[in-house]
C-alpha cells in the first residue's frame, strides 16, 4: 500500500514490539524489513508492553492502525489487508 498510495499522501509506519535490548530480536526485525523491502519508516518500540497495551488498547501483534488526516483511527486486529486497503483507498479520495 505504501508504494501504491504514497504519491497521494499516504504514509506507512511499522512498529516492532520486540525487545530493543535483545540484539538477536533486533536483527531479525531488520532482516525481515530488508527482505520485505520496507522503505517507509520502521521503528522498534522501547516502552514496556503495559504502556502500549494501555494506550492502544490491544494485547499484541499483529495489528494494523489506520489514521485519517484528522487523527482518528481504525484498528484491525487481526489485520485483514483487503479490507484495510479498501478503507485506505476511500480515505485517499477525501
Q: Could you please describe the fold and organization of this structure?
A:
With 94 residues, the protein is an alpha+beta fold. It is built from four helices and four strands. It has helices spanning 2-5, 23-35, 49-56, 81-92; strands at 13-16, 41-44, 64-67, 73-76. The longest helix has 13 residues, at 23-35.
Tell me, rounded to a whole number, the average pLDDT. 89
Strand order of the largest sheet: 1-2
Q: Uncertain spans, ≥5 residues at pLDDT below 50? A: none
Number of strands: 4
Number of domains: 1
Q: What helical percentage do the residues reach?
A: 25-40%
- How much beta, percentage-wise? 15-25%
Note the run of SSEs as H and E: HEHEHEEH
Largest sheet: 2 strands, parallel
Termini gap: 17 Å
Amino acid at each position: 500500500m505504501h508504494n501504491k498510495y504514497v504519491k497521494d499522501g499516504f504514509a506507512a509506519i511499522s512498529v516492532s514490539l520486540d525487545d530493543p535490548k535483545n540484539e538477536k530480536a533486533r536483527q531479525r526485525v531488520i532482516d525481515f524489513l530488508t527482505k520485505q523491502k520496507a522503505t517507509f519508516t520502521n521503528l522498534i518500540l522501547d516502552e514496556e508492553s503495559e504502556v502500549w497495551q494501555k494506550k492502544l488498547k490491544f494485547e499484541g501483534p499483529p495489528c494494523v492502525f489506520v489514521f485519517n488526516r484528522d487523527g482518528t483511527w481504525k484498528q484491525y486486529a487481526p489485520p485483514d489487508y483487503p479490507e484495510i486497503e479498501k478503507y485506505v483507498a476511500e480515505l485517499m479520495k477525501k
